[in-house]
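User: I'm preparing a small set of examples for a lab meeting where we compare how different chains pack in three dimensions. I only have the primary sequence for this one, and I'd like the structure in token form so I can line it up with the others. Please keep the answer compact; I'll paste it straight into my notes.
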Amino acid sequence: MSPHEPQGKLTEMLGVEPEQAGELRPLLGASAARHIERSTGTQAAANVLLATIAVFAVAYLAKLVLVTLLLSVLLAFMLEPAVSLLERTRMPRAVATGIVMLVIAILLYLGGYYIYGKTMAFIDELPKYSQKVRKIADEYREKAKKLEQTTASVAPVPPPDKNTVKVQQETNWTEYVTGSLGSVTETVLAVSFIPFLVFFMLTWQEHVRAATVMLFKMENRNTAYVTLGRISKMIKAFMLGNLLIGLFTSVLSIIVFFLIGLPNAFVLGFLSGFLSLVPYLGVVLAMVPPLIAALGQETTPEILVIVLTILGLHLFAINVLYPKVLGRRLQLNPLAVTIALLLWGWLWGAWGLILAIPLTAAMKILFDHIEALQPYGAWMGE
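Assistant: Understood. Below is the structure token output for the 382-residue chain.
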């Protein structure tokens, strides 16, 4: 704190000129000056707390809009290298963006069609697994029945009172379906905006960045430009790093699934590899597709190999690949990441878990370039 800062706070609180504040400071005494400084610090902390609450309130209320915007930003950063590559051939950026998005749409359609065909084939083969599934279900049903009989013998249920009138509330299925359709309709409407948002973000990238920098005062524009550049590099590194890690785990999963004779090893390995990237829940989600496909196996070694493979790849990716590929770019300590996942997961559910890490890393970059928030950025760092 500079020697002129307390005098500036004193001037602001007393509403006098700086010269008068300098004369009043000795009269007030050191204790009164310290009291004013403490009250000013308390007021600043209260302002930060209120601003934080306001930000999270907006994030909760505008969840659908913000998630749509952030997903569009991530997709735009993912496609930007391909657009820049086409632009080097002297192709207009709008045309290059349209070609890239058209190619992505075709690949998504072909991939969806292939996965749909494999899913239908798997459903057709489900009767082969019916005996195995029925056997497992019967075992759990018998255990539940024995538990119910044991509970009834220990604490018998008293006979119902004959004078008791039972009132059964009828479920309003129309209202339930209508409410669900409303939510689905809003989600589909928001998703339909993503292609247009990505297109305009790619074609107007330089204009948006320059216009954003111009929003700041002249003395702060250089800091704003550097901050946006660092956030841009961080997001690119985050997307590329996750893509490389997902491909690595997918290839190894495909090889293992093929060696143990798992049906549709390519699709299952690809899904398992990229589902493993979901923070915390990834290891569980990655096990679901191959374990369902392994229901028809008569022995348990294949299931054990699947579980150990996915668990080992997940631990290797989290403890080795992530620090090597993304650690330097994100510069977040594990405690900050865990709190961010908890907080954003509570606010936005599954999408919050996916977006928590890039959001928190971007916030740290902002904090590092704002003098008043640098202590918070240092706390979030390694």
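A couple of notes for your slides: Residues 1-7, 173-182 have pLDDT under 50 and may be disordered. Residues 331-382 form one domain.

User: Perfect, thanks.
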